[in-house]
Amino acid sequence: MMKLVSCLSLASVASAATAADPFLQKSSPIVAAAAGNNRILEDEGEDNGGGGNYDISGYSLMFNKCIKTKIAQNTDDDGCALFYNGACRSQYKSHVSFQLCTDGGNGKCVCDSSVDYVSDLDNFLEMSINYIGGGGGDDAMNYLQCAQGGADDNGNVLYYGPQCTDTGGLIVGGYYDDECTIKASYTPNLSYSTFTTIESTCQSCANGNCNEVYEDSNQCSGGKDISGRDDEDGVCNAAKRANTVMDYSGVKKRHAGAILIAKVFIGMLIIGLVGGFMFLTYTYYIRHRGDRTEHLVENVPVGAALT
């Protein structure tokens, strides 16, 4: 079964209701709604989530981020386990973080951002494509599963498969291995209308289509799994990093201030140099003008008229 835990200041309202009816505490979405629709769904199944009732038909799913985790390797004496195209490589596994939502009307989701549910990328794509009625015919659909796709500039065989962009979006990328875990520095030029649709679609779980993906997902909050499920891949920490938004506004302001001070200093320095040069020039002129006048007077014959 699922236990609903309130996370906002309205939790006292929900607590009063659940005290009167313990069943309400475990199963009613009304409690979550009273808490501002910000809820944590905790599984109480057996074997770390293996035997619970995963009926989330009253909710929807919304794509959040595509994230990747590094696969641990046993390195050789040189510290390199995977050598491809002249360099040591690492292996990565791709995942999707999604959020549970309620219907906000007009096809919009009202989602609980306090918890990220992290699923295997392949499973999430399969569920999503079934939900939207199949692919849109774009060529990225040819590489939903890892498949040979071409070669790099050095003639190395490349495999194409789903991959995460640097900003957490979905794309097809190049790999050196047939399991699409060793990333190559190559991205094929494909169309991605289906991936774009998946990223922006609020998927209703009314027909039970979300249950399997939900069951297999880690439930992450604050970089840790809160469901008791093993997190050997470190997906919760990866989800936390992906959701962290760095605010550089203060740095930019300080940088702008430093630039302004530097500009003022350089301007004053230039003015000082120009002013100093003009002063020295004028002083030189005054001094040597007097010398030339005395020299002229000394060479004029006695009795001659000065002109």
Fold topology:
Elements: E1 2-6, H1 11-20, H2 22-27, H3 29-34, E2 39-43, E3 60-71, E4 83-84, E5 87-88, E6 91-103, E7 109-111, E8 116-120, H4 121-131, E9 147-151, E10 157-164, E11 170-175, H5 193-200, E12 202-204, H6 211-215, E13 218-221, E14 224-225, H7 235-243, H8 249-298
Q: What's the quick description here?
A:
By secondary structure, the protein is an alpha+beta fold.
Describe the 3D structure.
By secondary structure, the chain is α+β, with helices and mostly antiparallel strands. It has helices spanning 11-20, 22-27, 29-34, 121-131, 193-200, 211-215, 235-243, 249-298; strands spanning 2-6, 39-43, 60-71, 83-84, 87-88, 91-103, 109-111, 116-120, 147-151, 157-164, 170-175, 202-204, 218-221, 224-225. The strands form four sheets. Strands 3, 6, 7, 8, 12, 13 and 14 form a seven-stranded antiparallel sheet that branches. Strand 4 and strand 5 (87-88) form a beta hairpin. The protein is elongated, with a radius of gyration of 35 Å.
Spans of at least 5 consecutive residues with low confidence: 1-40, 42-51, 246-251
Give the overall shape, derived from the CA principal axes. Answer: elongated
Summed over residues and divided by their number, the pLDDT gives a mean of 76
In DSSP terms (H or I, runs of 4 or more residues), the helix count works out at: 8
**Span between termini:** 118 Å
Structural class label = alpha+beta
- Strand percentage, roughly? 15-25%
Question: What percentage of residues falls in helices of 4 or more residues?
Answer: 25-40%
- Compute the gyration radius: what is it? 35 Å
Q: Quick one: biggest sheet? A: 7 strands, antiparallel
The number of distinct β-strands equals 14
